[in-house]
Design a protein that fits this description.
It comes from Candidatus Kaiserbacteria bacterium CG10_big_fil_rev_8_21_14_0_10_43_70. This protein is mainly alpha-helical and 402 residues long. It has 3 domains: 46 residues, Ubiquitin-like (UB roll) (Roll); 96 residues, Receptor-associated Protein, CATH 1.20.81.30; 243 residues, Type II secretion system (T2SS), domain F (Receptor-associated Protein, Up-down Bundle), CATH 1.20.81.30. The protein has 17 helices and 3 strands. A hairpin with a 5-residue loop joins strand 1 and strand 2. Helix 4 runs antiparallel to helix 5, helix 13 packs antiparallel against helix 14 and helix 16 runs antiparallel to helix 17.
């Protein structure tokens, strides 16, 4: 995509200017003509500098921006402000230039006759398929203000539970990295100097000390090779993780980790139930709900499950019956969905399940953090103590012999 700056005359004879993204100039002109504009001048914008492009990467629209945006749109719609006017007002008050540009483009598309959902769909990096489909359902039902309020509440819940899961891993990761750094420094800086003293004395060295010295010598001699190997391995794993096969492998591996896998399963169950419940309440059909949820669930395993389930549900099979054959789907979820199908109250059942799993995720994370913090501290202490003991005990024996 390229960015073009244009000057044009609208249907009322007023001069307008702005910018538009398009594959080439012909496509840009055609898009402007569809907006009933007579193009007087259009030129490609100058390419950004490499530094500007790098800085633009960090200027992204966050989930909190979308939450606040949804609440502001709700307020403006309740005040009977038109959609085009609402998006122009929001663009003028946007937190970042990038968000302001997106909102201005949406306002322009709405002015040219696009629906709000169609205008939002042009910016998938900001508005997910779930968001767009919810807005489309709101347009069809005539309850856009309620729809944006639902979306803000949903995004708030999703952000809160996702952030809690991420934050729970920060402290253990910090302790683990500290452990690795401390052990590496001791092996490459401290142990070699002490081992020289032990070897010069010529006394017999215990087996555990010889093992530590051997590891230390290997790390000291091949430290750069080890660092390069780690960097290359990390890069290759990252690239593999970007492929569909890699995403599925890491997803299944993550779900198999004791305790951690259970938390992730509950997190995704909460997200799936919340998505489906919100969409069903907005009048979106179950099949479409499964299709959209598969694209935003954030896990390759559950994305594959939901995508496969769509085809069987289209064939007339009940959703609970289809999901029953997947071991990743908890039995309680399948049973509750079956009750929802029998009573015709699926959205409320799914909402109940979503609340249940949110509580389960919160409780599991609190329990895990309470256990893992002392465990990591003890692990760090034991590791350092073992290294010190492996060199200090022989030194003590040597001094005792004099």
């Amino acid at each position: 995509m390229s960015l073009f700056e244009y000057k044009a005359i609208d249907g009322e004879g007023r001069e307008r200017q702005g910018s538009i993204d398009a594959v080439n100039m012909d496509v840009a002109i055609a898009a402007l003509q569809r907006r009933e504009l007579v193009v007087s001048n259009i030129v490609p914008t100058k390419q950004q500098s490499l530094l500007s492009k790098r800085l633009d990467i960090f200027e992204r629209v966050t989930n909190r921006d979308v939450v606040m945006l949804s609440r502001q749109i709700t307020t403006l719609f309740e005040a009977q402000v038109s959609a085009m006017r609402a998006f122009r007002l929001l663009a003028a008050e946007a937190r970042t230039p990038k968000l302001a540009d997106k909102l201005s483009q949406i306002a322009n598309d709405i002015q040219s006759g696009s629906t709000i959902s169609s205008a939002l769909a042009v910016h998938p990096e900001v508005f997910s398929p779930f968001y767009v489909n919810m807005v489309k359902a709101g347009e069809e039902s005539g309850k856009l203000d309620e729809t944006f309020s639902f979306l803000a509440d949903y995004l708030d819940r999703n952000y809160e539970i996702t952030q809690k899961a991420k934050n729970a891993l920060i402290y253990p990761a910090f302790v683990f990295i500290t452990f690795i750094v401390v052990m590496t420094l001791m092996m490459t800086l401290v142990i070699p100097r002490i081992s020289d003293i032990l070897l010069e004395v010529g006394q017999e060295i215990p087996i555990y000390t010889r093992i530590v010295i051997a590891i230390s010598e290997f790390m000291t001699d091949y430290i750069f090779l080890l660092l390069i190997s780690v960097a290359v391995s990390g890069f290759l794993l990252f690239r593999y993780g970007q492929t569909q096969k890699g995403k599925l492998f890491f997803s299944r591996a993550r779900l198999q980790i004791p305790h951690i896998g259970g938390i992730y399963q509950k997190l995704f169950m909460s997200r799936i139930a919340d998505n489906l419940s919100t969409m069903l309440r907005s009048g979106i059909q179950m099949v479409r709900g499964f299709e959209v949820t598969a694209t935003v669930v954030g896990d390759a395993t559950y994305e594959a499950i939901l995508s496969e389930a769509v085809e069987e549900i289209k064939s007339g099979h009940p959703a609970s019956e289809v999901l029953r054959k997947y071991p990743e789907m908890p039995g309680i979820v399948v049973a509750m969905m079956k009750i929802g199908e029998e009573t015709g109250n699926m959205s409320q059942i799914l909402e109940t399940m979503s609340r249940f799993y949110r509580r389960e995720v919160n409780n599991s994370i609190d329990t895990l953090v309470g256990l893992i913090e002392p465990f990591m501290i003890v692990l760090l202490a034991v590791g350092v103590a073992f290294l010190l003991a492996s060199v200090l005990i022989p030194i003590y024996n040597i001094s005792a012999g004099f």
